[in-house]
Every structure is written in structure tokens, then in C-alpha cells.
């Protein structure tokens, strides 16, 4: 059985509706800041429940431009367990990343964030790892009390919610990626910034477009970071079916959990009632022989992966920050134990059962059927 991690050829196998809309864009010559971009931004803002959504050319730029727009230059507290861009954008904005440890839920530990605040701290960049919201209500309250900017790196978390509000609507700004491998994806690169703050939104709209107030006035030195109109067409199309995609991923996750519940070597974070997880990644911890398990699954055709084997503070790029092994024990333990199984919307029940059986057999557990008939 082949269970691939990438589902892109299947996802866009039937893309005639997208092609038709792109043809119209081409025929109008409406390539940059076109009408489809405005329509997409409006729909995105409505979906997240914020006043403004600004399309930019990547999730990386969404983070970077937001930090630049607010002139953040001091310390920025963030997680050592994320993709590189979360930290890189802080450095490139001219600020200093300060890591705080995670919990076993893969997200920032709120009390570690509180403890890391100094009089140099200007902002917090919080990630919703794998589509599982971090305790963003706590962080918003903390940020407001301390006068800090809170940016949500929601690259993994389109459609996720904490309590009654979407990820991306809790912070002063939210940064989304639409890279092909993200839940809401396009045919190349794309990103979106969400905010309720009209001044920030206006500034970001200028910054992504050369700092132009209009054709003849350059308000400030900007960048070229527009979301292409053609990509907005793709994103809008995918967004129309995103709830079904997320539902399917949640069902796949439930089916995996049900069959792995008694496997003591596999650990996952508690499901909190206020947290709506979208399973951008189905990541759990394999407490024993992780690398062997990954290799074993790979040899059976299951495209299991490790996100990620090395936390950010131990990457060569982070050398200048002066961290050493042992500084963030939980994040380091995650890196040693995490495993991601393909559980995306194109994985079938049969494939889920196959993966669960393979994990059970690896750790010497009997098949799930026998187990479920026990009292
Ligand atoms: C993918 C990702 C980004 C960067 O997004 P791009 O669109 O690839 O630039 C930022 N943060 C996290 C957590 C990501 O996974």
C-alpha cells in the first residue's frame, strides 16, 4: 500500500473551474492587485472574523512585513519548535528572537512566555503548531497587560479556532501561508495578513506595493510583496471547500487515535474543549524507537515524516543567539520523538487502518479488532 504525504496531484486533478477563472484574469490583463484579489481578501477576512485581510506573496512576508510595519527592533519571544521562517523574519526585521520552551502540545508554554518577558520585550510571535491552537487567549491577555504586540504565526492553522474565535483573529495580526503544502494552498507561493487594525492594514497595503499611497506618491520605502491575482483565484476556490477538507482530516485523526489509544509508546496532546484542531499535520510522539518506526513505516509505503528533528535554537543559523542543548528540554524532547503520519483528506479509512495496524504491530500490540472486543 502506498500512502503518500503529498496529495497535490489529486487535489487539483479537477481544476476546470480554476482554469476558467484564470483565463478571465488573463483576458482582462488583471494580473496585480486585480479584482479577484480584492474578492478573495474580503472572503478571507470574513472567514477569519477580522476586518482586514491583506494578500502578500508568502507566509514569510506576512510575518516580516507585520514586524517591519510596527518597527519591532527589541526582543521578540517565540517558540523554538517551528519552521525556520518564524525566527528568520524576526532576525531580518532587525529584532532579537528570544525563545521560550514549548509544552508537550508542541506549542509555546504560556508560563514560559510570561517568564521570558523583560523590559526589552516588544512582541510575541506564537505558532499554532500543526493546526492545534496554542493558548492564544492567555497570550493576548498577557500581551495587552504588558503592552506587547502579539502576532499569530497561523501558517499551519487556517480554519483552527480557540474558543469562539479563529486563529488569526486573536492577535494584533495573524500571518498565514498558502504554500502548496499548507491546508489552504495555492499554485506556488502566497500569504495573508489578518488584522482588525485599520492603520496597520493601510500601512501593510502600502508596504506590499512599494510604499505607494497612489501612483505619484511614495509614502515610505516599501517592498514588492503582492499576492498574485492568479493565486487569489486558486486560494478562493480552495477556501470554498476548506470546511470539508478540515472535517475529513479531523475524522482521519479520530480514527487513528481510536486505534492507537492503548499503545503506550504513542503519546499525543490532550484534546481541549476550547481547541478546534485542523490537523494540518497529524503529529504525535513516538516515545520509543522513533527513527526505527519512521523507517519501518516508510518500508511499508507509508510516507511518515519527522517535523522537525532539530529545534530552532540548535540550528547552525541560530549560533549567534548563544543557546545550547538543554536550554529548552521540552522542545528538544519533541524533536527526538515527533512523528507525522499522512492523514490528509485523500487518505482513506482503509489506509488509516493500515497505518494504525503497522504502528501496533511495530510495538508488539495485537490487531485493533481484538482489542476493541475486550471489556
Ligand atoms: C510555512 C511556514 C511559514 C512560511 O510560509 P511561506 O509561505 O512558506 O513563506 C511560516 N511559519 C510556519 C510555522 C510555517 O510552517
Protein described:
There is one protein chain. With 375 residues, this protein is an alpha/beta fold. It is built from 14 helices and 15 strands. The strands form 4 sheets. Strands 1-9-8-5-4-2-3 form a 7-stranded mixed beta sheet, with helices on both faces. A 3-stranded antiparallel beta sheet has the order 7-6-13, with no helix packed on it. It has a 3-stranded antiparallel beta sheet with strand order 12-14-15. Strand 4, helix 7 and strand 5 form a beta-alpha-beta unit. Helix 2 runs antiparallel to helix 9 and helix 4 runs parallel beside helix 5. The longest helix is centred in the last third of the chain and has 19 residues. It is globular, with a radius of gyration of 21 Å. It starts with 7 loop residues before the first helix and ends with a helix. The model has no long low-confidence stretch (mean pLDDT 96). Pyridoxal-5'-phosphate binds next to helix 4 and helix 5.
Summarize the topology:
Layout: H1 8-11, H2 16-28, H3 35-48, E1 52-56, H4 59-69, E2 75-78, H5 84-92, E3 96-99, H6 110-116, E4 121-127, H7 136-146, E5 149-153, E6 161-162, E7 165-166, E8 173-177, E9 191-195, H8 198-207, E10 212-214, E11 217-218, H9 229-239, H10 242-260, E12 266-267, E13 275-276, E14 282-286, H11 290-299, H12 329-337, E15 338-341, H13 349-362, H14 368-372
Parallel strand pairs: 2-3, 2-4, 4-5, 5-8
Antiparallel strand pairs: 1-9, 6-7, 6-13, 8-9, 10-11, 12-14, 14-15
Helix pairs in contact: 2-9, 3-9, 4-5, 10-13
The structure holds pyridoxal-5'-phosphate (PLP).
Residues 58-60, 82-83, 85-86, 127, 153, 155-156, 177, 179, 189, 191 line the site of pyridoxal-5'-phosphate (PLP).
